[in-house]
Design goal:
0% strand; mainly alpha; globular; 8 helices
Length: 175
């Protein structure tokens, strides 16, 4: 029984590492460091958004590993790369996508005092939506963090990000 338990534990560990990989590590680590983000947060976003498929497209027109829309791409480009000749198509490039996505995650985390769930809600639904919810007492007691996520898609997205971050942290630790 002990041998079976040990074998099962080792097998489960391998499966979890396979289900929660660390891909594009050099870019994730570099941009996590540049923008002061725990790399496990970036892995959680990439896994949730595209499952590490650099060619992913969404029905909403988002592209690449971190599923960035054209409007968001244009806004980020204005902030971090105004003189570069990047186009929306460049989001299929893993480095460009992780660079832009990392900046946006960092922006959301900074805007919401490092609160991952609120930042994830903003990444998914926009900070205008989150800012509006923060002004409503039923959704925020402090005006800084959301205590609930009233929209189904937002709720499920935040749940996925936070759960995924928890698994990454458990599997790989924190920096």
């Amino acid at each position: 029984a002990l041998a079976g338990t040990l074998l099962f534990s080792a097998f489960r560990d391998k499966i979890e590492h396979w289900e929660y990989p660390q891909r594009f590590t050099e870019y994730v680590e570099y941009y996590a460091g540049k923008y002061g983000i725990d790399p496990m947060i970036l892995y959680a976003f990439i896994r949730t958004e595209s499952n590490f498929d650099p060619n992913a497209d969404s029905d909403a027109g988002a592209r690449g590993l971190m599923q960035i829309t054209e409007v968001t791409f244009d806004w980020i480009k204005m902030k971090i790369a105004p003189k570069e000749s990047l186009t929306f198509d460049d989001l299929y490039d893993p480095e460009t996508n992780i660079r832009f996505g990392s900046y946006f995650v960092s922006y959301c985390l900074d805007r919401y005092s490092g609160h991952l769930a609120t930042a994830a809600a903003a990444y998914h639904s926009g900070w205008g939506t989150v800012d509006t919810l923060l002004q409503m007492e039923e959704h925020s007691s402090d005006g800084q963090t959301l205590k609930g996520f009233p929209y189904n898609q937002m709720h499920h997205y935040v749940e996925k990000i936070t759960a995924c971050y928890g698994v990454y942290t458990r599997l790989y630790g924190t920096p």
